[in-house]
Amino acid sequence: MSDDEYKIETTDAGASETIPMEAGQIKKGGFIMIKGRPCKVLNIAVSKTGKHGHAKCNFTATDIFTGKKLEDMVPSSHGTTVPIVNKSEWEIIDISEDGELTLMDEAGNQKVDCNLPTIPEGFGDEIRDAWADGENTIMVTVQAAVGEEAVIGFKKENP
Description:
By secondary structure, the protein is mostly beta strands. It has one helix spanning 123-133, and strands at residues 18-22, 31-34, 37-47, 56-63, 69-75, 79-83, 86-95, 100-104, 110-115, 137-145, 148-157. The protein contains 1 helix and 11 strands; from the N terminus they run E-E-E-E-E-E-E-E-E-H-E-E.
């Protein structure tokens, strides 16, 4: 057998994009996966234990990327999944005609796989206008979870 037969295709450390958690442990303002989408919990209504079962948690949440409202009901003692959500700050270096961003972090690393946000309406235009003004440094907050990422905020910083 030669070494060519045992090639490693990926260098993934095996880290999961979600973690398991008991439904009763999730708090308002936290995150939960509903219908395969990462969501931020807006409200939790807990029903009492009935004659035949467990107390149930009614989750009302919004998708962190689309803003769409989703609901789910899970017995409080059962497991569910919680997405690992990361936020990072990046400086805008360039914005292309089609809205593709060129970003740089504090360490000088560049990122070119983000676009101007389309939700909420006009938010991307606000960022483009602030950047076109040219007087300030524009910092954007990029939120990432379950293989997706999007710009969720921006601020102007004076040089």
